[in-house]
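Record pair follows.
FIRST:
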Amino acid sequence: MWLADVIIKDASFLMFDNSGMGSHRLEQVSIQSVPPAASEPKDGITLDGKGVLNSQPVDIHIITSNLQLLVTGNRWPVSVSLRSQYLNGLFKGSLALRERMVGDGKLELNSDDALALNTWIGPFLPARSRTPVALSASVLMAGDVFDVSQLTLRFAEISMSGNFQVTAASSSGRQINGKLEASVLDFGDAYADISDTIYDAPLSVQRIPVGNIALSWRRTIWHDIEIGVGRATIERPPQTNRISLKIEEAALYGGTLRGNVTLDNLEGMHALNIEAKAVGVSAGPLLSSEQNAQSPVFGGNTTLDVNLFSVGGTLRQLIEALTGKAQMVATNGVVVVPELTTQVAEADGDELRFRSFNGGFEITQGIATSEDLLLKTDEISLVGKGRLDLANGTIDLNVGRLNSDGGSRTLKRYRVSVPIKNIRVERINGS
């Protein structure tokens, strides 16, 4: 069997991404046989191809051998190179047709511009700037099972290595299982400012492949938040519409974070469970914003224990239906709310420094209610009760100030209300 010549002219392909990220159009495709270069095998098949992928020209070059090697079960060598403005690549390997298709090879991809690559055929991973991309991996195929090993990836600030296996046709659909180790995970500014479109977009678990990924990292960045050394597991069990993220342990601003987040699709609605505990976290750096250079409204050595449940079809519905409990204990910290400092604490400056600040919250349908807030400074104690609307970002608290004057105790009452970003403090008459 001998392939004498190949000519394909003006073909078009429309490729759909079943993850829901969109489609890609490859147009004006032409492929034809060409004489081999001086360094290429003279008894093989050499092809040149070109086309337009999502409005950007691409060129491919294929070097292979006599097709008779493939159909007789022998190793059929193949080399494919890709050239374009935003992505270059090379695959060198071999295929063999036996009881099933088998093959192996080495894949290399690189780009000079992660942002442009995401715009062209992505998005793949978050990127903050026009930084390089480099991927290298060994690939082994046996039927519908693909093993990817010796993976190294540098995508913008992300740097990781690992291995994983993809099963393309299992009873539960595509499965991905593996282990990834990252020196840096950078989620960029993804979801830093959540728009109404994201809030109200339907949630979907079905698009996420079945499988288990063990992930470890030395440094993780999201927006202005940095998480230190940690490990986690992402899992979607077979025959389920449930996905979970288990943070086994992660360093977080001087403390530790552990937790488990599960999203389960139940009869068209999504059930969300959150169990998390942060111990000894320095809240000031966690809540600070480099973007607007504002001081955080709260700081201190903080322990927070959260247990929440919700049901909804969108992110907004999940927030509005949150139900559960939260307990906070903070020591040696500061509250930076000028109205609270001047009117309630009757102190100078914008800061109110405290020795301890603790309280519990009962959360029902997105409303967090507390009856036992207690803040203590060296001179006064503030007690409070009220509610916080998590979905709308509003607060309504009654705050009482206890102070001692020569052994006697006096109580003054205030109301703290309106949106959290524009707090108003009012003295309650008669106090």
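SECOND:
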Amino acid sequence: MLRGKRDSFGGSPGHPIPSMDKVGGQTLVLRVVAIAALARLLKRYDERGRVTLVAALRRATKRKCEQATLDEADVAAALEYAQGVFEEASARADRRHS
């Protein structure tokens, strides 16, 4: 979708971040949204609840990767990336919770 002011900054029209390539912009925006949403969710749980929630999200991530028929190395890499997202969200939740 075109946005007049945003798309006048350069880059291809319709990109989430016009100065970035489409995939890079989408990835950055989705990571920011995911971390912010997960941090807000984690804030509502105690430590035990957080562990349970993150474990469920890891299982879901692994299941989706396997449904996409990714090989073991790709699944492991995706889980490692997801772990980084979980850790960043948890750190943000702790900062807001204090």
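COMMENT: The chain has one domain: 4-97.
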